[in-house]
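Table 4 source record.
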Amino acid sequence: MVMPPRPTFLTTRLTPLFSSLFSHSQYPYFSFNSNTPSFFLRNATRTLTTITSSSSSSSSRRAFSRYRKSQSHRLSTLAEPSAVKLSAKARRRIARGSPEAILKHKLDECSKTGDLVEALRLYDDARNDGVLMNLDHYNKLLYLCAVSDLGLKKGMDIFQQMLIDRVLPNEATFTNAARLAAAKNDPDMAFELLKRMKDFAILPKLRSYGPALYGFCKEGDADKAYEVDADMIRSGIAAEESELCALLEVSVSSNREDKVYEMLQRLRTTVRQVSESTFEVIESWFSKEFAAKIGEKNWDVNRIRKGIERGGGGWHGQGWLGSGEWKVAKTNVNQDGQCLSCGEKLVSIDIDPRETEKFADSLSILACKKDAKLGFIHFKKWLKQHGPFDAVVDGANMGLADGQHFSFARLRFAVEELRQMSPTKRLPLIILHVNRVTGGPALNPNNRRLIESWKKNGILYATPQGSNDDWYWLYAAVRCKCLLLTNDEMRDHLFQLLGSSFFPRWKEKHQVRVSTSTGKPVLVLPPCYSIVIQESENGNWHVPSVTGDDLDIPRKWLCASRSRKNSLHNLWKSTSATDDT
């Protein structure tokens, strides 16, 4: 006698919302254990249950693999061409006019507009007309159902039908199903679906964790939220500000001071500057009576010093320091880095030279993949021959200061200003696309003479046709370890490809901007301190908020400080006094 799979978490936790389903024999790979209730089906699929609860998981996976092959064969059979040979163009035209393609197009429109009512009508019509629905159809429907109260119950029915139709799920399917579970206030099931996704060898994304994580945080279940977070870390997925803010908030509300400290450190390394909502959560922690009771009164000075040295400055990572009520203030920091509330001076956090070299190498590899390879290789050789430079200028950005008309006069002003600032009084490197130096305003005799003088001095590089000059000026500035003059905030797709926590740190310490708020252009140098969450040697905290692109609007900081009675500052003073005697 073959014993059924041992009951899993599903058998004891989840509430059934469907009244019936289908037998194991009829649907062998998407069938359901008779003992297992589920939020989306009365019985959990034998495939899902067996994979996680049976000792013969490898055989289950082999069966699942065979099913994938059978599905592929079934679809290829449906798509077999008739005896009449058709051109590829003709087949595409026929495909676009098929009921399946028309349904996909209409569901795409519903998805864009959020029109669930119309999407459900299309679904019902498709079922009645016998349209062969595929994964994309179902995912669009599940997505719409997951973001609407109206669609919750219908979403369960659609998911059931998808399994009946033997349509293989993917990451989007599981994520939308998890959203449905979370919308029913069932984060446990959302987390279970996440685990089952892995059993199908489907890699989760950051969005896959959201339903369970936010659901547990909303319920105030900190331990389960931390469990989801730990699973995310094991999967190699980095939480972003939204997830960290949710974890921080549940930690604050449950008085988990160690976790609050951890989340602040993770925000420091991941986000650096926080949004208004995160700002308020951090403020709420320091304003709590409980927070006043937390902290080490007498700490090891050398331990704190070593922590700061290891971290490169700006934090020590040794836990809460000091005792007593926190003084919390929304304040500003002056150009010298001094907090206008507590008077502490913020520090400039070092960048490891090895990180810079590694980043320059990764830039070169990306540029060769995404840009005109031979052109970029030639530039690297040219830079090695003519460099290094004290500064690099994004010529197009500086010349198009008004966004419409290119001005060599504006560019010349920026170049001369940088020259005056240079310790060696050397002219900066100017990067311009070849079209900028061969046509348009470049044909003006005065501008032509200026261009020739820059070329003669070896400070102008014209990027070739088909290239993106952004790669060139960024690589040159990183490789030369010098200043970069541009008002480009570097947020578009090209810079997102860099995908590195190093880039915002480098940008903060090297980007020079031009401000025209006073009517006359003025160069704005990088700040002398790091705009990042800082934990001081006295146990004080400074948290910067995100600002817009307007350089004249001061950044808001949160300052949380304590009395210096038992501070490291006084311990140092007393130690020095003892040494003097």
